[in-house]
Amino acid sequence: MEELRNENKLEIKDKNKIVKLINAQDYLEEYLSENYPGEEKNEITEIYIYDKNLEGDLRIENFPNLKTLNCQNNYLTNVEVINCPDITYFDVGINLLKNFDFSSLISPEKLIFLNVGSNDFEEKDIDFLEKFINLEELYLDSIVEWKVKQGIRNRFSGSLSPLEKLAKLKRVNISNTDIYSGLEYLSDSIEWLGCDAIDDESNEKNEGKKREEVEELNINRKSLKGHLDLTDFVNLKGLHCAENELTEITISPLAKEKIKVLFLERNNHLGEGLHLSYFSEFINLETLRITATSFSGSLEFLKDLTKLKELSIGSTNIDFGLEFLPESVENLDTDSESYPNPLNPNPQIIKIREQLAPCDLRKLKILDISNIDIENGLDFLPENVKEIYCSDKEGSESGMRTFLKREQVNTQGSLKLEGFDGLEELNCYDNYLTDIDFANIKNPEKLKKLYLYNNNFLKSELTLFNRFKNLEELVITSNYLNQNYKEGIANRFMGSLNLLKDLTKLRRLDIENTDISEGLEYLPDSVENFYCEAGDD
């Protein structure tokens, strides 16, 4: 077929070989005449034209009994399939396709093998695969390394949930795509799943750079465990550290203002060392993926991320606060029945917001709701409220409140808790508190979670906590990276851990950078996570 080679075509480099490309359609006609001489199209069941240096457009038309089409490992930029209703094996892998009309496979239930891997598909989800109900092998990957390093790769994205009903699927490869969730939807028939990542050009560009010069860091699937310290990477704009075993990540305040992309998914214990409030300082964040982490609580902490466009929170314990998400969010992936219409807030909430719009509470500093029947909502007060009076001498239902948070609002001095007799969780970290009047809590056995870190508590022993027999989480640390700590403002709890020995339900204890110096042997066996490091002074 030498006469088909176009000597005027541009020569390109592929794995250190210089190849001359061949017009795909011309080659097909020659292939058919050589391999099926005298046969009609309706007699042809197989076409194998793989690894032939074919380029350009390929049109496969009117082969009513064609079962196998294999044109893998060429340089095809477009493939059309017209009136081929019997295809069961379709392989166009390792080409340069940016798109393909999958609806042209007009008998999707017959397809058992589909390979579109190592092409250049534009960003799209994989809903188009739902109709291929008898598929056994599926390849969407980008595993040809030299192509990936040139930016040529498939950008399939979103969730694997469209594969939920493909009950015969045995082999799937999504390596180096942008599909990051939905593994739980795969059928039990799966025998092999490829989801590796090739270190992309961003890491290659980092070679020889100092840490402060790195703008993008890809450390997905590196078997990282525990605490990851990235404080020296002050110019980070993108961080990819999915599928590790991280419990905590420390990022420079300078980088927090620059980072646009955070891929943290499938770090199963990350929410145990961090709270959702951790993300509130990433003011330019556009993409946040925390699927399959242990984050919990409310999305309210993301309300000020006004540039956030994509958020993935599937398989977490985040269970409320959708109404606080900024309007910038375009794509929300929850993988949860709890949020059937995640981007459509409750119409009642919208109505309430409209009614309250004329009320300007931005100047409110002192609020007195003592002796009235307000039962909840204290945690939604604006940050400008510095003093709250809510004593309940008449015993109204406000005393049944179970959750109180006043974190990061510069609350100073002593905090009074009179009237909060049903309190189960207290968050008041990142303030300037020197004391909390726990004596006024009439039902201390109800308190389960207590977060007091980054305050200014005076020197005191841990006696004030031993009343809380059912406490599960106690965090009283002072983070050495916190600005308060750098200014000498820190919690000064001291003495021995012996005073916590009767807290037999305590699972998490964080006393980093306090003055507690002894008693480790007295900790109850229930403790699973214990943090006691000292920061640099």
TrEMBL record:
<keyword id="KW-0732">Signal</keyword>
<keyword id="KW-0325">Glycoprotein</keyword>
<dbReference type="InterPro" id="IPR032675">
    <property type="entry name" value="LRR_dom_sf"/>
</dbReference>
<keyword id="KW-0812">Transmembrane</keyword>
<keyword id="KW-1133">Transmembrane helix</keyword>
<protein>
    <submittedName>
        <fullName>7880_t:CDS:1</fullName>
    </submittedName>
</protein>
<keyword id="KW-0472">Membrane</keyword>
<dbReference type="InterPro" id="IPR046956">
    <property type="entry name" value="RLP23-like"/>
</dbReference>
<dbReference type="GO" id="GO:0016020">
    <property type="term" value="C:membrane"/>
</dbReference>
